[in-house]
Amino acid sequence: MRTGKNYLLYAEVDDLKKRLKDCPPESRDALSKQLKEKKTQLRKAENRFLLAEMNRHKYIYFMLLIPVVYYFIFKYIPLWNAQIAFRDFISLKRTGITGGTWVGLENFKTFINSYYFWSLIRNTLMYSFGKLLVSLPLSILLAIAIYECTHKALRKVVQTLSYLPHFLSWVIMYGILLALLSPSEGIFNDIIKLFGGTPRGFLTDTTAFPFIVILSDAWKEIGWSAIIFIAALMGIDGSLFEAAIVEGANSWQRVRYITLPSIKPVIVIVLLMKIGTILDAGFNQLYMLYSPAVYSVGDIIDTWVYRGTIEGRFSLATAAGIFKGVIGMTLLFVSNWASRKFTESSLF
Amino acid sequence: MAKKNTYNSVAVRATAADKVFNICVTIFMVLLLLILIVPIWSTIALSFRPANYIGSYLEGMFLAPWKWSTGAYAALLGNQGFLRAFWNSIKIMAMGVATALFLTVPMAYALSVKGVPGKKWITIFIMIPYVFNVGVVPTYLLISSLGLTNHLPSVFLPVAISTYNMIIMRQFFEGIPNDLRESAFIDGCNDLQIMFKIILPLSKAIIMTVALYYAVSFWNDYMRSLLYLQKSALKPLPLLLRDILIGTSMNDNLEANAFGTAPIEAIKAASVFISAIPMIIAYPFIQRYFTKGTLAGSVKG
Asked: A154 contacts in B (CB within 8 Å)?
C-alpha cells in the first residue's frame, strides 16, 4: 500500500534501485546492502501502518464479527454438509455427515440417468423462458404506459395497484386463483358455462397448467419489474422530447425513436440478469399450484429437490441441488461478464 | 412523476396520431386496472358471501354490499387454531425482522467503509455462498443438527442475512459522502457512534425498504415452515391457509363444525384476505420510502 507516511521510504527504495542499476561494479555490494536495509525498514513501516489502519478500524471489525460468525454457521456449514451428495448418507443419527461411504459421482449419475431428469430440465426451462418472454415485454409496456398516461389519477392508481401483488405470497395467490379457476367455484368456469362450454379444472389440466403458471406470474410480478424501467424513463432528458416535437415527431415516433432506445441499456441488463438466474423457475409458485395430477408439466428441479428432502432422499436431492448450483453459478458469471462487457454495469 | 406533453418551452399541438396514441394508452391502462382488480375483487366479494346465497360465482361479484355477511370473518376470528397461526406468523415476522436488521445493518455499514484492511477477503467470503447455492438439504441438516427443528427461529435464521439486501444497503451507504465520516472521525467519534449518529439517521429510506423486504419474506414464508415446524401448535398462517384451501384442515387444527354456518368458500376467501391484510396495511405507509430505497439500490446497478 503506497500510502500514509511511508512515501519517503518508497522514494528512497526506488532511488536506490535506480542507482544500483547503473552504478560501477565496485560500489555495487555496498549499495545492495543499503537497499536491503531500506527494504527491511520499509517492510516494518508497512506492517506498522497496516496495524495502525486495523487499529483505526477496530470497531469495523467488531461490527463484522457477529455477521461473519453467522455466515460461517448458516452459509458455510451447509457447504460442508453438501458433501453428502458424494456419500451414501443415511441419517444424521446413524451416519452423521461424514459417516456414509464415499461413492463419488454415483448420486449424480443416478439423477442424470433417471427417467424424470429430462422432464425436470424441460419444465424448468419452459417456465423460466416462458415467464421471461411474457413478463419482460409486458413490464416494459406497462412502464411506458404509466409514463405516457395523461390521466393523473388513473396513472397513480394503476402504478400503486400494479406492484401490490408482488407482496402477496403464493399461498394467497393460490386462494385467489381458486376463486377464479376452480371447476366448482371459479368465475372463469361460470363465464365458460354462460357461453355454453363445459367447465375445466384449470389447475389439474396438463394443457392449461403451464399457461396458468406463466400468466399468474405475470399478473403478480410485472408491476414490480416495471419499477426499474420507470426509473430509467424518468432519467431521460426532457429536451430530447422537446426537440422531437419541434421536428414534428408524433407520440408513436417519440416512443419508437427516443423512449425505447433510451432504456435499451436497462433492458439489456435486466435480460442478462434474468438469464443468469434462468434455473430459478419459481419454486414457491409451482410448489403451491401443482398437484400429482400435473407433476409431468409442473415439476421443476427445485420442487423435486424439496420433495426429496421431505421424503428423506437426502443424498440424491443434494446431488440435484449441486447440479443446479454449478450450472447456475456458471450462468451467473457468464451473464455478469456479458453485462460488464456490453453495458459497463454488473452485479459484482 | 415527470410531466410530459406539457412543455412550457414548446408549443404542443396534438396531431391525430398523438390523439390515437393517448387513447390507446388510456385503454391499455383501464384494461390493466380491470385485470388487476377483478381477481382481488372476486376474492373479497366471495369472502362476504352470506350463508343462504344462491347463484353463480360470477353473479356473486356484483352482490350488493348491504347483502354481504361477515359470518366468515366472525367464524375465523373466533377460531383458536386460526388465531394461533396468525400469532405465530406475527412472532416469526417480528423476531425475524429484528434479527435480520441487527445482522444486516452493521455488516452493510462495515463493508461500505473505504480502506479497511482485509475488506476484499471478507467480501469474497460473503459472495461464495451467494453465487454457489447447493439447495435445501444441507441447510435442513444444519437446522436438524442444531436442534432448531420445531422452534420458530428455524424459519428466519437460515435467511437472516440476505446477501442481496445487504448489497443494496451497502450501495446506499457508499453513496453517503465520505467527508461526513472523516470529519466525525476527527471530532473523536468511533465507527459505532458514526453509524448510529450520522449514517443511520440519513438512511431511513433504505432501512425501511430492507425491513419491508425481510418482513414480506418472513410473513409469506411457506417452504421453511413446512420443513422445520412439524408441531401443529407452531403452524404459521401460510401453512394453515394452505390446509384450509385444499380442505384438509378439518381433521387437524380446526374442528369439523368450527366455522358454524358460513359457507366454506367464504371461509377460504376470508382467510386469504386476512392473510393479506398486514401487507395491505403496511403497503401505503412504506411505499414512499421503498420506492426511493429500491431505486437507490437498482439504478446504480
From this structure: 26, 29-30, 33
Q: Looking at residue B208, which CATH number applies to its domain? A: 1.10.3720.10
Q: Are residues B111 and B207 in the same domain?
A: yes
pLDDT tens by residue, B169-198: 998 898 888 888 888 888 888 889 999 988
Q: Please check whether residue A74 is in contact with residue B160, taking contact to mean a CB–CB distance below 8 angstroms.
A: yes
DSSP code per residue over A7-30 = HHHHHHHHHHHHHHHTS-GGGHHH
Task: Judge if B27 and B41 occupy the same domain.
Answer: yes
Instruction: Please check whether residues B79 and B207 belong to one and the same domain.
Output: yes
Q: How many domains does chain B have?
A: 2
Q: What are the cell numbers at A180?
A: 377464479
Q: Is the ipTM of this complex over 0.90?
A: no
Asked if B178 and B289 sit in the same domain, the reply is yes
Contact B104, A39 (CB under 8 A): no
pTM (predicted TM-score)? 0.86
Task: For residues A7 and A13, give the distance between their C-alpha atoms in angstroms, rounded to a whole number.
Answer: 10
**Max intra-chain CA distance, chain B:** 76
The alpha carbon torsion through B90, B91, B93, B94 (nearest 10 deg) reads 110
Considering only CB atoms, A92 lies closest to which of B106, B145, B222, namely: B145
Of B47, B69, B91, at which residue does a domain stop? Answer: B69
The H or E element containing residue B111 is helix B80-112
pLDDT at B300 over 50: no
Q: pLDDT tens for residues A157-178? A: 898 888 889 989 999 999 999 8
B101 and B189 both lie in a single domain: yes
CA separation for the pair B164, B178 (Å, rounded): 23
Distance CA A337, CA A322 (A): 22
- Tell me which chain B residue has its CA closest to the CA of residue A73: B142
| Cβ within 8 Å, pair A227-B7 | no
Q: Is residue B60 a part of any domain in this protein?
A: yes
Domain membership of residue B239 as a residue range: 74-300
The rounded Cα A270 to chain-centroid distance in angstroms is: 10
Residue B276 shares a structural domain with residue B166 = yes
Residues B160, B150: Cα–Cα separation, whole Å: 17
Class of domain A116-343: mainly alpha
**Whole-angstrom Cα distance, residue A146 to residue A154?**
9
Which of A59, A90, A163, A222 is most worth mutating to test chain B (most B CB atoms within 10 A of its CB)?
A: A59
Q: Are B47 and B72 in contact (CB under 8 A)?
A: yes
